[in-house]
Amino acid sequence: MKKTALLYWAPGGNVEKAAREIFDKLNSDQVDMFTVAGFDTARISDYDQFIFGCATIGAEVWMDARADNKWNEFFVKTEGMSFAGKKFALFGLGDQVKYTENFVDSLGYLKEEIERRGGSIVGRWPVTGYRFYDSEGVSGGYFFGLALDEDHQADLTPERINRWVAQIKSEF
């Protein structure tokens, strides 16, 4: 496996828990894990591939430059950088019952920012087995990355992570 950075936000909750499970399944000394706030963007060139994870947030929050929006801060800092030749796998957490019209929208926002910088997305995940109305994180029957719902399908998370990690290993 090439040198990989796993970045996630926010710490201390389900996103971090999923990030740690993914990190453990990768079982490689070629993977470094950081919170997005703890990652020095000057080190982008040190990595060939990335795994990004975050929770569902709405468009109005995504572009908000508040101090607690660390993904926005990351993408502001990387504006003008090229991600060309780098591969990105995404995972997102959401609640498909309470936020049925915005389930894992964050996957779409991450994809858009990565592709604007020339990066390519791997690890698309089928929508089969989920119940939601709409998502910015879906196209053609696939999420742009692994979708997890710890509120209503936590029992499916371990198997989904196992399958997705095997998939992204082959796609990386």
Mean pLDDT rating: 92
Low-confidence stretches: 58-62
Domain module tally: 1
Number of strands: 9
Largest sheet: 6 strands, parallel
Helix content: 25-40%
CATH class categorisation = Alpha Beta
Radius of gyration: 15 Å
What is the percentage of strand-forming residues? 15-25%
Shape: globular
Can you tell me the CATH topology? Rossmann fold
Order of helices and strands: EHEEHHEHEEEEEH
Could you characterize what this model shows?
This protein is an alpha/beta fold and 172 residues long. The protein has one domain (4-171): Flavodoxin domain (Rossmann fold), CATH 3.40.50.360. The chain contains five helices and nine strands. Strands 1, 2, 3, 4, 5 and 9 form a six-stranded parallel beta sheet that branches. Strand 7 and strand 8 (142-143) form a beta hairpin. Helix 1 packs across helix 5 (157-171). Mean pLDDT is 92; it is low at 58-62.
